[in-house]
Amino acid sequence: MVRPSPFRRRRSRVLSGRALLYAISLGLMIGWYAPQWRADPPWERARPWSAPVSAPAASSDMLSARFGFCHSGGGVDCVVDGDTFWFRGDKYRIADIDTPETHGPRCAAEGALGARATMRLQDLLNAGPFTLESGDRDTDRYGRALRVVTRDGASIGGMLVAEGLARTWDGSRHPWC
Description:
alpha+beta, elongated
């Protein structure tokens, strides 16, 4: 009969290298997606199989928030200038327009028009639900998500253009002074 040696080391219950890597990866993934889950929980999203068949779809606009102004750096649900805003922690650039600069305008007229465009964008975003539609490119060189913002199928950028607060984006910047 073989007896176990009292000097034999017991196996420790520490995670192996691979298990530790998986645990850290899982923790990082939860940390990355948890803020979005809190803002838009997956279990509260509309399920296509639960909608009544006869219900008419009035509008596909599902996104909304109460937008303020971004005072410094990033933010959540705030307007940076006439064509840039933060929504649910992500920075967006309206893809179909160009507005005057408010941060480092070249002249007083550009700064004043840029301020009007910024205030008007805030009004338009707060006016009701909207949709963010992808365009030709997903992001710009600054890492901002490029999207066309629409409400009831009409471009909010187009509204700013019609009001004289923006130009249709043609692929390059033009002076406002």
